[in-house]
Amino acid sequence: MKRFLLVVCAVLLLSGVGYAQQTIKIGGIFDLTGATGDVGAPYAVAARDYINYVNKQGGVNGKKIELIDTDYAYKIPQAVSAYKDQVSKGVIAILGWGTGDTEAMAPMIATDKIPYISASYSEHLVFDKTPYNFIGATTYSDQARLALQWIKDNWKDKGRKPRVALIYNDTGFGRSPIQDAEDFAKKIGVEIVDKEIVALQALDATTQLLNMQKKSPDFAINQHTLMATSTILKDAKKLGLKNQFIGLNWAFSEKLIEMAGGASEGFMAPMPFAFWSEMKVPGVQFMHKVRKEVAGKEDAQPVNYTQGFIGAYLLVEALKKAGNNLTGENIKKVLESNTFDMMGLCANIAYKPQLRKPNVSAKMYAIKGGKIEPITGFLKY
Predict the structure, then answer these.
(1) E strands within the chain?
(2) Average pLDDT value for residue range 266-288
(3) Within this chain, do residues 97 and 225 fall inside the same structural domain, yes or no?
(4) Are residues 315 and 218 located together in one domain of the fold?
(5) Is residue 17 part of a domain?
(6) Cα 196–chain centre separation
(7) Quick one: 213 and 245 in the same domain?
(8) Is residue 149 part of a domain?
(9) What CATH number did the domain enclosing 91 receive?
(10) How far apart are the first and last CA of the chain?
């Protein structure tokens, strides 16, 4: 019997199965070709780049990382299928993507005890009911609060309240911050005068913008990705709208300048992330190094690359701290009990078990002269 057990153990060792696994399997559920593929593709490139870089450096605690990733095309059923497939293949953590799918899968994620670091910054994912979900940035709701507070603080007409419209898409991602924004606006004395729904891949927003114009907003806060944002800004310019447009993070990128051209001039956003061009930031210097080593060039990347880099970097740092105890429960404990130095790519991340917000931090950026510039320090509300 002893000899039989020794033979079985030897087979397991040679096959890489069981306690002596030679790789650390993690999953990736990305949108490369769906409705948010414009920002999802560079996010996935960054995650892959960093995992490849880590492996070239010897892996994590002597083990290489195997990234098993899937393009789910921003469709919730396909995300669920990808999740089940990756769990069946033995992944111990997943880099996820969208709000609707991440929220839909949260009960499964909790049951399976799979730490899930997604690109959804929905505030619905930071509470006790989603214990294995982690987000890598200031929530959409907090971004909206920071934008509203900035509007309040910079409003000059003391004879009336600033008037704000909300533009969003009818998805879990689009709806995520809207009620929180309305509640906070009421609290601080900002008037929400209109709400307009524009589809994620809309090629025309004229009707919605004309409806909004009737309410005479001073500002419009936009919760979208780049395609719809480009459409909104170009149509607003054609219509001669004068209100200030402010986007939340997925609406703002270097690529938007290419897509919207002059219509992007003056567009603003409370951004939690450093940009590829901010070479004084140590983390940006590191991203350049990684990209050059993995891809052989330092080709300019949009801010969505920074976001994907943050997710992958955060997970790898947690794996390092978890040591040889690579269970979902221990990785969760590591994430909730450490402060992670993000090298300035975003504010340092420190989760708490009962409220897993990584931080509440963003600077207001604006497009000026065809370039992105910070116009404030870190905002507060």
Answers:
(1) 23-30, 64-71, 94-95, 116-118, 133-135, 163-168, 191-197, 219-223, 244-247, 268-271, 339-340, 349-350, 363-368, 371-378
(2) 97
(3) no
(4) no
(5) no
(6) 23
(7) yes
(8) yes
(9) 3.40.50.2300
(10) 67
Strand partners, 63: 60
Residue 10 pLDDT more than 80? no
Are 312 and 46 contacting, i.e. CB atoms less than 8 angstroms apart? Answer: yes
Rounded CA-CA distance 331/321 in Å is 8
Residue 3 within a domain: no
Q: Which two tokens stand for residue 242?
A: 């004068």
- Cα distance between residue 268 and residue 151, in whole Å: 12
Structural domain that includes position 206: 141-271+363-378
Which residue, chain included where needed, has tokens 């870190």?
378
Q: Are 346 and 273 in contact (CB under 8 A)?
A: yes
**Rounded mean pLDDT of the chain?**
94
Euclidean distance between CA atoms 313 and 320, whole angstroms:
11
Give the closest residue to 111 by CA, choosing from 95, 127, 87. Answer: 87
Do 131 and 145 lie in one domain? The reply is: no
Instruction: Work out whether strand 191-197 and strand 363-368 pair parallel, antiparallel, or are unpaired.
Output: unpaired
Do residue 206 and residue 266 come from a single domain?
A: yes
Encode pLDDT of 120-158 as tens digits: 999 999 998 999 999 999 999 999 999 999 999 999 999
Q: Which DSSP state fits 353?
A: S
For the sheet with 363-368, list strands across it.
191-197, 163-168, 219-223, 244-247, 268-271, 363-368, 371-378
Residue with tokens 């990736």: 28
**191-197 and 116-118 beta bridge pairing:** unpaired
CA 189 from chain centre, in angstroms, equals: 29
Beta carbons of 162 and 218 less than 8 angstroms apart? yes
More confident residue, 11 or 341: 341
Q: Do 236 and 368 sit in the same domain of this protein?
A: yes
Kindly state the tokens that stand for 189. 């004395």
* Selection from 176, 148, 228, 19 nearest residue 9 by Cα: 19
Residue type present at position 285: Q
CB 329 within 8 A of CB 257: no
Q: Note whether 249 and 289 are same-domain residues.
A: no
Residues 55 and 118 in one domain: yes
Determine which helix (DSSP H) or strand (DSSP E) holds 336, and give its type and residue range.
helix 328-336
Residue 172 forms part of a structural domain = yes
Count how many domains the chain has. 2
